[in-house]
From TrEMBL:
<dbReference type="GO" id="GO:0004672">
    <property type="term" value="F:protein kinase activity"/>
</dbReference>
<dbReference type="InterPro" id="IPR051700">
    <property type="entry name" value="STE20_Ser-Thr_kinase"/>
</dbReference>
<protein>
    <recommendedName>
        <fullName>Protein kinase domain-containing protein</fullName>
    </recommendedName>
</protein>
<dbReference type="Pfam" id="PF00069">
    <property type="entry name" value="Pkinase"/>
</dbReference>
<keyword id="KW-0067">ATP-binding</keyword>
<feature type="domain" description="Protein kinase">
    <location>
        <begin position="25"/>
        <end position="143"/>
    </location>
</feature>
<keyword id="KW-0547">Nucleotide-binding</keyword>
<dbReference type="InterPro" id="IPR011009">
    <property type="entry name" value="Kinase-like_dom_sf"/>
</dbReference>
<dbReference type="GO" id="GO:0005829">
    <property type="term" value="C:cytosol"/>
</dbReference>
<dbReference type="InterPro" id="IPR017441">
    <property type="entry name" value="Protein_kinase_ATP_BS"/>
</dbReference>
<dbReference type="GO" id="GO:0005524">
    <property type="term" value="F:ATP binding"/>
</dbReference>
<feature type="binding site">
    <location>
        <position position="54"/>
    </location>
    <ligand>
        <name>ATP</name>
    </ligand>
</feature>
<dbReference type="InterPro" id="IPR000719">
    <property type="entry name" value="Prot_kinase_dom"/>
</dbReference>
Length: 143
């Protein structure tokens, strides 16, 4: 995507116009903490399907970075090795408080490669695991 196209697509995202997640998704439990917020295991209210929901405070300083993340998720989440992006929602806060952005993605219950490494408790990953991870990372880059 060219820089001009990226800028144009950022301008087309109106965070304030996103739907409220109430009645669509609900938070179940915290599963991680990130730089910009917490990640929850969530659930689609009607179907019960699990989802990963990244909840972030929306501030003016971070708005462009948030828009970039949404564009990246929209563009690249259709690969089998990348969590599928389901959508973005805004949960409006009380007057004077920041709104919350909910980025909703496929829930990967087994965790990340980082989680796998942490579970080894200082031991090395098995060579066949490393080979599998490397192969799958290369598949993402080749698409």
């Amino acid at each position: 995507m060219s820089r001009e196209n990226t800028t144009r697509s950022l301008d087309s995202i109106d965070l304030a116009a996103l739907r409220d997640p109430a009645g669509i998704f609900e938070l179940v439990e915290v599963v991680g903490n990130g730089t910009y917020g917490q990640v929850y295991k969530g659930r689609h209210v009607k179907t019960g399907q699990l989802a990963a929901i990244k909840v972030m405070e929306v501030t003016e300083e971070e708005e462009e970075e948030i828009k970039l993340e949404i564009n990246m998720l929209k563009s690249y989440s259709h690969h089998r090795n990348i969590a599928t992006y389901y959508g973005a929602f805004i949960k409006k806060g009380p007057a004077g408080q920041d709104h919350q952005l909910w980025l909703v993605m496929e829930y990967c219950g087994a965790g990340s490669v980082t989680d796998l490494v942490k579970k080894t408790k200082g031991n090395c990953l098995k060579e066949d695991w490393i080979a599998y991870i490397c192969r799958e990372v290369l598949r993402v880059r080749s698409k």
